[in-house]
Amino acid sequence: MVIRAYRSILADLQAWGYEVRIAWWGQGFSKDNPDIDELATGAEITYITTGEFLALAGDVETYAPSDRLQHWEHSFSTHKFVHDSSGTGTFKSHDAGRTDYEKSIYVTNDRRNVAVPTLETWADLESRHGGLTIDGQGKTRRAKPGDTIMTAANCSRVSAHNQARSMGIDGEQICLTCPLLNACRNSQGDGYGFRFERKEALIHSRFKAHPASLPDPEDFDYSEFRLIIDEVGTMPFTEQITADRDAITNLIVDLGDRGSSTYRVAQTN
Predict the structure, then answer these.
(1) How far apart are CA 159 and CA 130, in angstroms?
(2) Which of 14, 38, 57 is the C-terminal boundary of a domain?
């Protein structure tokens, strides 16, 4: 279990562009061995590569490129999480699109510009936007003021939703008070259609999604789905929430009115 965690951390660091060396003094992977602050002089330390470090564990799994899909399936039969740390340019994304697993979600930070042929037929889980354009490199991105709109906005209240998200506030009420709500649920047009597009995408057994657009586990059954995460080291697993004093005060009052246990805990810490 420990070495799998080490392997995942090292793969993330390498994906971020760091050259990693491991301080080694024969510590092994047991708590019975001395920690670095328990060494006599520090002269015992040498620096080894990640490959040398992982080889010491004795359970590094390798496979031939042609066996990738079979190896993935075998790994999933015994593990809940599988991290393929093969290098860039080894066609992992291409092979992800070739998987035989029926229900799969390809999670990527650049969902609109996936250029892998095997993934082109997968549905797109569209996010809320105020219009899309094509940049100078031929890539689709969110339109800015002055850009030529190539795809009409699928929401007329994008700025309000963005503001709510930046403060960690549920934007559901923004939708429920929108005069275009019913149209948004059932069709698409200029300024509406986000909910319809999302509903249609989630019907598919295979689709591409930005991590921030993944459905809430309370509203979507992930039990039969496999998530294939592209460049896991770049995934935004946390986000910064910005709020001013008034917003925090209003939140505290609201929590207090609800008799929230969360508020009572906050008062005592």
Answers:
(1) 8
(2) 57
What's the CA gap between 119 and 102, in Å, rounded? Answer: 14
Cα separation, 47 vs 53, whole angstroms? 10
Mean pLDDT, residues 8-29 taken together: 83
95-123 pLDDT, tens digit each:
999 998 999 999 999 999 998 999 999 99
Residue 263 has pLDDT above 50, yes or no: no
β 226-229/104-107 pair status: parallel
- In the chain, how many domains are there? 3
Q: Which residue has the tokens 């598919």?
A: 204
d(CA 242, CA 159): 15
Q: Where is average pLDDT lowest: 59-63, 144-148, 228-232, 236-240?
A: 236-240
Q: Give the domain-ending residue among 13, 38, 57.
A: 57
Where does the pLDDT of residue 256 fall: very low under 50, low under 70, confident under 90, or very high at 90 and above? low
Range of the domain at 142: 123-203
**In angstroms, how far is the first alpha carbon of the chain from the final one?**
34
DSSP per-residue letters across 73-124: HHHHTT-S-----PPTTS-HHHHHTT---SSEEEE-TTGGG---GGGTTSEE
Q: Is residue 67 part of a domain?
A: no
Query: Do 197 and 153 meet the contact criterion of CB atoms below 8 Å apart?
Result: no
The pTM of this model reads 0.68
